[in-house]
Amino acid sequence: MFSLLRGLLWATAGGLNPFLPLLLASAMARFTGRFQPLPRYAFLGETWFVIVAGVLLLAELFLDKIYLPGESLVVPPQERDRKKWVGAAHDLGQMLLGPIGGALVLGASDRVLPPAWFLIAPMVGALASGAVYAAKRALRQRLVLRWAPSLQPLGNLFLSAVGDLISALVCAAGLVVGMLGS
Fold this sequence. Notes:
Strand content: under 5%
Structural class: mainly alpha
Distance between the termini: 11 Å
Order of helices and strands: HHHHHH
Radius of gyration: 17 Å
Largest sheet: none
Number of strands: 0
Helix content: over 70%
């Protein structure tokens, strides 16, 4: 039961920062052995996956401070400059890869559900991550664009840093829960 809760915490954290829980899970599987993914998710512990997750996390940490989620997608494609295209790619990456990351970490953590229900945990992980991402996007849009438009660059930077901190704390809570279960 603790493994399922750990995976759910990591999937939820993936809604705020999609690559931090993936990097944490893959690095733990690769280097410490404290996280043992199910065999069908064994690729999470491969070196190439750790590298990809690390690069994506670094890109996410910088791009999320620059681009407000959803801001670039509302601009019509013919009116986008290079900066808006990078922002749109970042938005789509977060929107698509966040729920996939949540599905991977919860699916790899599930040791409770019967084998015939192998899709339930990834679906719950994707839903948890997607719901948190949607809430983050709506909240940041409202706070930055409506309440503090004059502070737009700093407001987005601050809210992104707070989101990263919360994601790290939820990942740490998942680590503690995982240690309690071992």
